[in-house]
Predict the structure.
Amino acid sequence: QLEYPKEMQNKYIVSKTLGSGACGEVKLAFERDTHTKVAIKIIRKSKFMTDVLPEMQDKPFNIETEVGILKRIDHPCLIRIIDFFEGKDFYIVLELMEGGELFDKVQRPARLSERTCKLYFYQMLLAVQYLHKHGIIHRDLKLENVLLSSREENCLVKITDFGQSKIIGETSLMQTLCGTPDYLAPEILHFAGTAGYGRSVDCWSLGVILFMCLSGYPPFSKKSARPSLTEQITSGNYCYIEEVWKDISRDAFDLVQKFLVVDPTKRLKIEEALEHPWLQDEHMRHTFQQLLAQTQNMRVKPEPLTLVPPGRKRDYHEDEKTGP
Ligand SMILES: N=C(N)N/N=C1\CCCc2cc(NC(=O)c3cc4cccc([N+](=O)[O-])c4[nH]3)ccc21
């Protein structure tokens, strides 16, 4: 308790650990004045950086960008930041995601039904579509960074961890291409052909996520020593186990295959995925809209709990006077 910043302790009572990741853990906390439960992600000031690179003394290069992104984004399938504190480490206060990480739901023997995979994946597509529309590439999409809003199978999912994200803005290449290319070297025009494909890295990762949600195993893994993991990925040579995929629809597998395409210019884009047959599912989209509606209602600040002041007995009419 000693190490938490004072101003954070004034606002929140920090409780148990909910999960721990590579760069720090997530704590359950209670907001003092509203009694609402929140999550606090602790991001360690990487020991290594500050020891070896004194110029890193102030903060990991990304934390400002990341908190800046977290403050700007507003989408039901992206994690919402509530507060931010800096102390011995960094503390990001967030909405509680009681379902935890999607990673834990697809670990063998746990398996998600195809219906549930579709509900979750549809939300991930909407979230990444929103990021790309706002010039943000996530660059670290993985099962650990997809959180579930409740323990119910039918729930909202939210993408988190923008530690590796990149903001794509106006590039000098765009300015160059505005002018007439009379004097422009061919290699610039050639390079222009492949520029701007940064966002397709997120589509590849979504393909890996969908593969693992549907099948319960990773498409590329070190398990089979030959070819090496890198060779499997660079050749798009995913591991296909007939036994597992035979119970999964052709549409679902077709969508996975269209994401796991090595050539980024040929890889499926988010908009195309949202048009894919597998996602033209009215029932699933209706379920999503219902989940959304529920949270919209809940978004009204909950009435602060009025605790009976100690020692004073309320006769049973009293609350009628102060009724709603
Ligand atoms: N690394 C980085 N630079 N940025 N990462 C970030 C910064 C943005 C916030 C953030 C949140 C999380 N994770 C959770 O919130 C979370 C995990 C979890 C597990 C069980 C239960 C609950 N829960 O009941 O809430 C959980 N909430 C992981 C990484 C990051």
